[in-house]
Amino acid sequence: MPPVESTLGYEQARDELIEVVRSLEAGGTTLEESLALWERGEALAKVCRRWLDGARERLDAALAEER
C-alpha cells in the first residue's frame, strides 16, 4: 500500500478508507494483511480529519467575518 500523502484529497482518502473498511469486514485476510489494512485506515482517517478540521476553521472564520 502506498504511503498516505498530505496532498491526498478528502474524497480520495474517504473513498479509500471505505474500501479498507470493506476489506476488513469481508475478512479472509491474514493477520499481517489485516494489521496493514488497519494502519492504512488509521492514516486515511487522519487525512480526512485534517480536511474536515480545516473546513470547519474556514467556516468559523467566514461566520466571524459576517458579525
From TrEMBL:
Highest taxon listed in the record's lineage: Bacteria
Enzyme Commission identifier(s): 3.1.11.6
UniProt keywords, alphabetically: Cytoplasm, Exonuclease, Hydrolase, Nuclease
Localisation per UniProt entry: Cytoplasm
Xref: InterPro entries: Exonuc_VII_S (IPR003761), Exonuc_VII_ssu_sf (IPR037004)
Name of the top EC class for this enzyme: hydrolase
Reactions performed catalytically: Exonucleolytic cleavage in either 5'- to 3'- or 3'- to 5'-direction to yield nucleoside 5'-phosphates
A molecular function (GO) term: exodeoxyribonuclease VII activity
Principal localisation: cytoplasm
The protein's role, per its UniProt record: Bidirectionally degrades single-stranded DNA into large acid-insoluble oligonucleotides, which are then degraded further into small acid-soluble oligonucleotides.
UniProt family annotation: Belongs to the XseB family.
NCBIfam families: PRK00977.1-3 (NF002139), xseB (TIGR01280)
Quaternary data: Heterooligomer composed of large and small subunits.
UniProt name for this protein: Exodeoxyribonuclease 7 small subunit
Organism: Streptomyces endophytica
Gene: xseB
